[in-house]
Design a protein that fits this description.
The chain has 342 residues and is of the alpha/beta class. 42% of the residues lie in helices and 15% in strands. Helix 5 links the parallel strand 1 and strand 2 (95-100). The chain starts with 7 loop residues before the first helix and ends in an 8-residue tail after the last strand. This is Transcriptional regulator, LacI family.
Length: 342
């Protein structure tokens, strides 16, 4: 027969105090002396007391849990972001429920509903590839659920989000190539419908325009699926044989492009220079190490969880109505060995 679970009343009986005193002591309430708090904590340890979180959530309407909804889990940025989210949540006394939408809008909507049914105190959401309208997200926010968009954010300014300035990072990458003497640059981008692609492509073109160049001089390749890179890159390089450098908008494109160039016998940077936007891990596993604009997946995840949980625990009141605010994280250029001076 399973041992009976210790309760606050059991601790109160052992300590010779009221259950209310035990409850306040276990919550580290300042009205209880330090000596009494330590005594009660020791008795709780001896009795192997575990708080009933379900009962507590019913009383406080808080579960100390946030939901994380991701479109997919790849091998690069997302695992580091998840690590950062879990680290910050644990430091702040919260747990994380993680879900994957498989880049499907219907699944994303279902998971948002499910997270609220599970009484998540807040939600971190990275949008699916199918998500265009954010009406379902706005409706959830209007119902009072704290929500922060992260990474893939749809480019909205109406819903708080945490992202990097992808346009600025892409522009910085192009300027670096220009400073190295490159004037025939190719840009390799992901799915054209994604806001992250559109954002980084706009920065790429903006930097070219400032240098008196156009997309005619510096063409772009867009791939809807990462596995398309093999066939499409080969064709792209044949169509534009004069290219001296490529800008790659993501880790996935960087790794697959590097692989294809190696298979084609194209030497980096002697024949073709490479620069990418990256979370800063994969570039060091490639030879030569790839010059990149670094954005930390861990840092983004940590900051996203910290922002959301801080908002939850300091929930706005009529006296303090401040809403959850978004933010843009900076990137840093890391010059390694994949860009040559010409």
């Amino acid at each position: 027969m399973a041992a009976k679970r210790a309760t606050i009343k059991d601790i109160a009986r052992e300590a010779g105090v009221s259950p209310a005193t035990v409850s306040r002591a276990l919550s580290d309430h300042s009205s209880i002396s330090k000596a009494t708090r330590l005594k009660i904590a020791e008795i709780a340890r001896q009795l192997n007391y575990r708080p009933n979180l379900q009962a507590k959530s019913l009383r406080t309407h808080a579960t100390k849990t946030i939901a994380l909804i991701l479109p997919e889990i790849n091998s690069f940025f997302v695992p580091e972001m998840m690590y950062g989210i879990n680290t910050a949540a644990a430091e702040l006394g919260f747990s994380v429920m993680m879900f994957q939408s498989d880049n499907q809008l219907a699944r994303e909507k279902e998971l948002l509903w499910y997270a609220t049914e599970l009484s998540a105190d807040g939600i971190l959401l990275s949008l699916s590839e199918e998500t265009e309208s954010l009406e379902h997200v706005q409706q959830l926010r209007d119902s009072g659920t704290p929500l922060l968009l992260i990474d893939k954010t749809g480019g909205t300014t109406d819903i708080p989000s945490l992202t990097i300035d992808g346009a600025a990072a892409a522009a910085d990458a192009v300027r670096h190539l220009l400073d190295k003497g490159h004037r025939q640059i190719g840009g390799v981008f992901g799915h054209p419908a994604l806001s992250i692609t559109q954002n980084r492509r706009s920065g790429y073109l903006r930097a070219l325009d400032a240098a008196g160049l156009s997309e005619t001089d510096c063409p772009t390749l867009e791939v809807s699926q990462i596995l398309e890179i093999s066939t499409n890159l080969h064709r792209f390089l044949n169509d534009y044989p004069g290219l001296t450098a490529l800008f790659l908008m993501s880790d996935e494109l960087m790794v697959h492009t590097h692989h294809e160039l190696s298979a084609l016998g194209i030497r980096i940077p002697e024949q073709l220079s490479l620069i990418a936007i990256s979370d800063g891990i994969a570039p060091y596993y490639l030879h030569p190490n790839i010059t990149h604009l670094h954005h930390s997946g861990y840092g983004m995840g940590y900051e996203a969880a910290r922002m959301l949980i801080t908002h939850i625990t300091q929930r706005p009141t009529p006296a303090n109505p401040a809403p959850l605010q978004g933010a843009i994280l900076p990137t840093k250029r890391c010059e390694l060995h994949s860009v040559r001076q010409i």
